[in-house]
Task: inverse folding
C-alpha cells in the first residue's frame, strides 16, 4: 500500500526562492536534498554545497532537523509544511594569530 504524497514548500538557503514539490512521506532527508540538487526541467533548485558546508533540512513549524536517514514521516512533516534548506557549518576554525589581551 503506497502512502499519499504530501506537498512540501522548500525555502532556498540564500535567496527568497521557494520550490513546491510533492514528496513521499517515505522520502529521506538525503533523498530530498539529492532531488533538490538534480532539479527538474527548470534546472536544479540548489547548487552543490561547498566542502564543509553540507545542506540541512529544517521543518519550520517545529525547528526539527530532518537528518539524512530520517524520513519525512519520522520528522513529522505533513501536507503543506515548509522546510527550510540551510547550510550547516562543520569544523569552524579561527584564523589567528590574535593580539594578546592587555594586562592591567
Result:
Amino acid at each position: 500500500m503506497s502512502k499519499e504524497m504530501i506537498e512540501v514548500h522548500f525555502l532556498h538557503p540564500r535567496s527568497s526562492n521557494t520550490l513546491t514539490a510533492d514528496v513521499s512521506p517515505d522520502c529521506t532527508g538525503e533523498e530530498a536534498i539529492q532531488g533538490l540538487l538534480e532539479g527538474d526541467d527548470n534546472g536544479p533548485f540548489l547548487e552543490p554545497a561547498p566542502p564543509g558546508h553540507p545542506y540541512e533540512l529544517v521543518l519550520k513549524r517545529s525547528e526539527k532537523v530532518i537528518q539524512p536517514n530520517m524520513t519525512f514521516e519520522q520528522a513529522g512533516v505533513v501536507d503543506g509544511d515548509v522546510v527550510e534548506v540551510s547550510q550547516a557549518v562543520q569544523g569552524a576554525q579561527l584564523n589567528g594569530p590574535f593580539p594578546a589581551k592587555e594586562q592591567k
Notes: The CA atoms of residues 49 and 97 lie 29 Å apart. Residues 6-87 form a domain with the Ubiquitin-like (UB roll) fold (CATH 3.10.20.90).
